Structures are given as C-alpha cells and as structure tokens.
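This part of the workshop introduces the protein records we will be handling. A learned vocabulary of local backbone shapes supplies the integers on the structure line. Getting from the letters to the tokens is the skill we practise here. As an example, a complete record with its sequence and its structure tokens follows.
=====
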Amino acid sequence: MLDTDRSAQVAHTIRGDFDPGVVDSRSDNELEDEIAELCIHIDAATYRLLRAMAEFDRREAWGWGFQSTAHWLSWRVGIDLVTAREKVRGARALEGPAPDQRDLPAGQAEILQGEGHDPDCHLGERGLLALHRGEGNGQ
C-alpha cells in the first residue's frame, strides 16, 4: 500500500507544476530541452533507486515481516509483486561496483551521474544496467 504522506506529496507536486487553464508560453526548443533534462533526472534517479534497492536487499532489511525485498517493495510503494520482483532483479544486477567512469564512452559517465544532455532521452532500467556494465550506449 502506498504511504498516504507520499501520495499527498506526489499529488501536490503534480498539481503545483500543471495548470490546464494556462497556456504554456515556452518555445518548442525550450520544451524539448525540458523534456530531455527531465529524462536525464529520471534516469539518474532510477539508477540511484536501483542501487538503494540492491543495498536494502543485501542487508535483508525487509526481514521484519516480509518474505523478500519484492514483497516489502510491493507493500511499501504499492506496485504489483511481479513488477517489484523485476525491479529487485535489476537492482541485484547492479550489486557490483560501477565500472571505472574513465572506461565509459563519452557522455555515459555524465548520464550515470545525472549530468549531460542525451537527446535520446529516457534509458529505462535495462539501459541503465547496460551503462553500468559499460555495454554500448544503454539503448
């Protein structure tokens, strides 16, 4: 079940950023830049989330009443168990140290750190895992 405080925070954030009665005055280029920047933030946050999940799972911090990290995740943030298991599986794939950032192709280290500008936008968990392993461009 999703924490009601968290639900309220998300709802407040969404309402605060979006007013359907106001015409957006940004240019197309400004909108493109914002979309690309937000995608970078999503990728960086997803990477940090997966690393935190891996550590939570490694510590077996879920052990006070749940069968697994996936069960805890399903209960705590309200996602279905299958999706929770997939997230934990991805998190476990990140348990090893990240590759030496000097060995990554240009731009990939910045993406993992939440910096840079990738016009291809959101990498998703699989893309982030590929970047973590130093495979290709995460696509």
The CA atoms of residues 1 and 78 lie 4 Å apart. Residues 29-133 form one domain. The two ends are 33 Å apart (CA to CA).
